Fold this sequence. Notes:
The chain folds into 2 domains: 5-216, 3-Layer(aba) Sandwich (Rossmann fold); 225-486, Ribokinase (UDP-N-acetylmuramoyl-L-alanine:D-glutamate ligase), CATH 3.40.1190.20. It has helices spanning 12-24, 29-47, 62-76, 94-103, 136-148, 186-189, 193-197, 209-214, 258-269, 284-288, 302-308, 327-335, 346-349, 355-361, 375-381, 383-387, 393-404, 439-452, 457-475, 481-486; strands at residues 53-58, 81-85, 107-109, 119-124, 152-155, 177-181, 199-203, 220-222, 246-250, 274-279, 295-298, 316-319, 340-343, 369-371, 407-410, 416-418, 424-426. Helix content is 39%, strand content 15%. By secondary structure, it is an alpha/beta fold.
Amino acid sequence: MAEKLGDxxxxxxxxxxxxxxxxxxGIASFGxxxxxxxxxxxxxxxxxxxxxxxxVLCGPGNNGGDxxxxxxxxxxxxxxxxxxxxxxxxxxxxxxxxxxxECALASQPLAVYIPGPxxxxxxxxxxxGLGRDVPQQVRSVIEQVTGAAVPVISVDLPSGLDGRSGExxxxxxxxxxxxxxxxxxxxxLLMPGRELxxxxxxxxxxxxxxxxxxxxxxxxxxxxxxxxxHLLSSAKLETHKYKxxxxxxxxxxxxxTGAARMSAxxxxxxxxxxxxxAAPRDAMAENGAHLTAVxxxxxxxGMALRDWLADERLxxxxxxxxxxxxxxxxxxxxxxxxxHLVLDADGITSFxxxxxxxxxxFAEGEPHLVLTPHEGEFARLFPDIAADRRLSKVDKAQAAAxxxxxxxxxxxxxxxxxxxxxxxxxxxxxxVWLATAGSGDVLSGMIGALLAQGLPxxxxxxxxxYLHGEAGQRAGKGLSAEDLVAHVQPF
Length: 491
């Protein structure tokens, strides 16, 4: 399954390098601006054929130039168009100045725009490279447009959004539709940017793919099957349960066993050949009363665990859901440092006082630890990274993965999966109703099952997150963790 150009995510800095290299190659940059503006005009007419007026808001750079081209094309189509500019248009230069000169439509200062009934706003003020809070006059227009519920089509990215992080810089338009060019940026996928972009259209404006690929690090992408499907061997007739891996999930004591069962059942549904719950003796009857296909094994303490680990077939474990916080959890983690481990929930929080203790256990060799923190758990393990406001969620996940030598699943509506080698994937298929008690326990079991089947830590984490989202879509609104497990399917 080959990666398509549209699967790439370019940061604003990488896109700027692409633009510069395109110009150096001899391709006329104004032709690209013309194509961009035409794509925006085409989207506006297609989506809002009944608009009474298109209000085109043009900024002081090339994003504004795209807007002037769009305004001209809209006017040529017979639409009513009004153009508004930010700053002194006489100070435009290069392609943007030419686009305004050829537009031949009079423009008014942005501050005088008042949204009217039947308006559709074409937001061409700032693009993806904005790195500062929007000025007050732009904030004021954004507030008026938002209050009037006027539909917005944004050029490249809604003005006020950071194209690298998806964060709002003071204020931002909420677009119904966004037209970007050649590739998306991380800000189109990361929250809250994803919600503010509306539907996203990627327009091919004629930049050669070779130039884009030459200036893309290739390290940040959307989490799609192209990233891991090649690692999944198709099922064969001779495949048996041991070839599909043995996953062990640790249970808490009596009265605290439900989370482990969620993980274990999810692991079985996700394709593990065998699943065992390792539980204290006082929790055996409680677990046994609810399980049939999942096996049980008594593990009361660290000594019993180390005895069990003499069986070299035991290579993959899930620790943390419902297990309890404290020294026992840390001792179990240390015993498992040479095996594949998904550490979640209580497992993560047990190391909050000394995260380095955890990192040292898994510092050597290929990554075989998967950490699945939500926002609060992430801050407990990586307090300095979490507090750095200069970093995007992707940056934070990448830094954490490198420090821990682990695959990081930084959970949320925009879950980011990161590898110590710098790769990062942004997941987009999870429905909002996945935010329910026990959902994370299900995810841990799914990732554990994929590790047990031989996938590397990063790919197992990425596939697990993707399949988790698919299960949530199938289960539908109002799901419980039990519903989610019932809808888990292998890829």
